[in-house]
Amino acid sequence: MSRILKINRRKLIAAGASLVAAPAILRHAYAQEVFKIGKVGPVTGPIAGFGEATAWTISQLKDVFAKLPVQVEIIEKDSQSNPNRAAEVATELIEKEGVKLLLAKGTPDTTNPVADQAELNGVPCITDDAPWQPYFFGRGGNPAEGFKWTYHAFWGLEDVIANFVDIWNSSGAAKVVGGLFPNDADGNAWGDPKLGFPAPLAAAGYKLVDPGRYQPLNNDFSSQIAAFKEAGVEIVTGVMIPPDFATFWSQAAQQGFKPKVVTVGKALLFPSSVEALGDRGDGLTTEIWWSPSHPFKSSLTGQTAKELCDAYTAGTGKPWTQPLGFGHALFEMAFDVIKRTKDVNDPESILAALTETQLDTIVGPVSWKGGPNNPVKNVSKTPLVGGQWTKTDKGFDLVITNNPQHPEIPVGGKLRTLG
Q1: I need a surface site. Which of 15, 39, 157, 277 has the fewest CB within 10 A?
Q2: Distance CA 161, CA 157 (A)
Q3: What total number of domains does the chain contain?
Q4: pLDDT digits over 327-352, tens only?
Q5: Beta bridge partners of residue 76, listed in sequence order
């Protein structure tokens, strides 16, 4: 755990008119307040890539903090890629630290237990980095009622399915798909007969071969590979953590299974995970939540998506990653709520500002005020496209190849089949 960036109130006043702050009456009213924000995400463990950019993001925004109408303290906790740990640290943030706003990101394994603790304790909470169906229905959400305290921004399974099918349609591969769905919140949602892949794929003319749920950190995919070979599978899909996909892909080569298209969520999001596969990472496909090509700007810094990616690479020496944009957007949403809250000591007042959010962020527009991008009360959908990893002499590039739902996000190349 780390405490980060306590902003000195005297520095804010001394900075004067050069800061874009709230009206003087609000600054006076908040002068003695400290607004604690709790942030939970995976920094260690098998999905640590989702939290890799968080520390850099907070550091990059330190000057922006001083423009808020209240002194801010951010307390960051590591979920260790474990749902039980995520719930535990969320409880600590609420009960021991007295946070006034919870933030969480990094798959349903983090977002769901944190949001559940926030809902239970009446603390406003914003999450992202998890498809909305595992987030909402995985928590027992009722569309007729929704939740009171917890709000989410991300795309849904209908969006990832639309992009995956568009990739497969353009590949020319046989319409037989092998599914790799783990026994976790993501896998159970993606493989669900009603909410997940089976029905939409059947409607699109695809046969889904689903050997059943496997346990995460599986060390043997021989039975799945045998089932795929017997059924004539030419396309493989699923939602896997990076170690599981690496195991599957290595065993597929050893056992002579050579699909024409592999389109997998989660495991293929990160450059480091793909680079670890060597030449066998070239041509793999995945969903793209966010990239340097996305035509959006930060409401906090004015940076374009490309400028944010370039700044991250310059500051860390690492390639950009998709969670970078959503980590930045999480603080865009949080700071926007703080600026509009009438009484920062009243959770209901914070919640009122949260529910009225209507903000253009680095990942696209976010609003919970109702409309086509709000499939349920607590969800604001963000854009999604599809793409392919391409090996170059400098490493791997993730190239947008398909954008059926969002033509405003430009493609950068044509899809290639494996082999």
Answers
A1: 15
A2: 6
A3: 2
A4: 999 999 999 999 999 999 999 999 99
A5: 2, 39
148 and 182 part of one domain: no
User: pLDDT exceeding 90 applies to what percent of the chain?
Assistant: 88
Q: Are residues 215 and 226 in the same domain?
A: yes
pLDDT of residue 66: 83
The answer for residues whose C-beta is within 8 angstroms of residue 210's C-beta and 6 or more apart is: 179, 181, 191, 198
Residue 299: inside a domain, yes or no? yes
Q: What is the DSSP letter of 321?
A: -
Q: Residue 244 sits in which domain range?
A: 158-288+384-402
Q: Which helix (H) or strand (E) holds 374?
A: none
Q: Do the domain assignments include residue 85? A: yes
Q: Are strands 125-128 and 101-105 parallel, antiparallel or unpaired?
A: parallel
Q: What is the pTM of this model?
A: 0.89
Tell me whether residue 392 is in a domain: yes
Whether residues 230 and 135 share a domain: the answer is no
**What residues have CB less than 8 Å from 160, skipping those under 6 apart?**
131, 265, 287, 384
Q: DSSP secondary-structure letter at 8?
A: P
Q: Phi first, then psi: give them for residue 73, nearest 5 degrees.
A: -125, 130
Question: Are 39 and 151 part of one and the same domain?
Answer: yes
Residues with Cβ within 8 Å of 12's Cβ and at least 6 positions away in sequence, in order, are 19, 21, 27, 66
**CA geometry: angle at 35 spanning 31 and 37, to 5°?**
160
Say what the pLDDT of residue 32 is: 52
> What is the domain-level CATH number for residue 171?
3.40.50.2300
Tokens of 230: 């017997």
- Contacts for 317 with CB less than 8 Å, ≥ 6 apart: none
Q: Are residues 395 and 365 in the same domain?
A: no
Q: Token pair for residue 291?
A: 């990239």
pLDDT tens digits for range 13-69? 333 333 333 333 333 344 457 899 999 999 999 999 999 999 999 999 998 988 888
Rounded Cα–Cα distance for residues 39 and 2 (Å): 10
Secondary structure (DSSP) of 146-215: --SSEEEE---HHHHHHHHHHHHHTTT--SEEEEE-BSSHHHHHHT-TTTSSHHHHHHTTPEEE----B-
3 state SS of 369: coil
